[in-house]
Amino acid sequence: MSRSYKFWDQEKLYFVSFATVNWNDVFTRPLYKDIVVASLNYCSEKKGLEVYAWCIMTNHVHLIIGSHSEPLEAIMRDLKKHTSKTILKAITENPQESRRDWILWHFARAGRNNQNNKDYQFWQQNNQPILLDSNFLIEQKLHYLHQNPVEAGIVSEPEHYNYSSAQDYADSKGPVKIILLE
User: Fold this and answer.
1) Does a structural domain hold residue 176?
2) CATH no. for residue 119?
3) Do residues 49 and 65 make contact, with C-beta atoms less than 8 angstroms apart?
4) Can you give the residue range of the structural domain that contains 151?
5) Beta bridge partners of residue 67, listed in sequence order
6) Which end of the chain is more exposed for a tag (fewer CB within 10 A), N or C?
7) 71 occurs within a structural domain
8) Is residue 52 one of the residues assigned to a domain?
9) What does the pLDDT read at residue 1?
10) Where do the Transposase IS200-like domain residues begin and end (predicted)?
């Protein structure tokens, strides 16, 4: 992993993005997005993850996070490991999943090409954390994260997207417990 893709200062906020292997559009079904939501809430409650903003797109996740307890790299490792296993199981067991064989083929192929995996690789290896060391960067990444579903044509307003913290910043309550940035 390159030097620029590490959590250097555990006391700071980071913008983190991570994507599925081959940018496969897995998160087109609420079932799979809900697994990520549940994992974010679990990591907040049990591992000390501080979620300031989040957004789940069709093939990637954006977060603004911090932690004052467990190291962020450990939390991210556990989050990605748990979600990959749980989502792969859900894909395998979902009778409505018409793309099952195609999706699993991609993840199995990636898993065979990576010695760190036994069978499947769901997430790309890196998290690409970006240190948010200024108000300008925080505002820029928060805006980018919340505008992502609008730019993708999923919704017309950020707060209309159910899988984003934009609802919380618009004075509604979203499904992930967050800490509002001021």
Assistant:
1) no
2) 3.30.70.1290
3) yes
4) 3-169
5) 49
6) C
7) yes
8) yes
9) 40
10) 10-148
Residue 15, strand partner residues: 64, 130
Query: Does 13 fall in a domain?
Result: yes
What is the number of residues in the chain?
A: 182
Query: Residue 35 above 70 pLDDT?
Result: yes
Structure tokens at 103: 């999706």
Listed residue (23, 43, 58) closest to 164, CA to CA: 58
pLDDT score, position 2: 42
Highest mean pLDDT among 7-11, 110-114, 148-152: 148-152
Structural domains of the chain, count: 1
Measure the CA–CA gap between 149 and 155, rounded to whole angstroms.
6
Antiparallel, parallel or unpaired: β 60-67 and 49-56: antiparallel
Q: Are 158 and 149 spatial neighbours (Cβ–Cβ below 8 Å)?
A: yes
pLDDT average, residue stretch 79-101 = 95
10 dihedral zone (left: phi>0; alpha: psi -120 to 50; beta): alpha
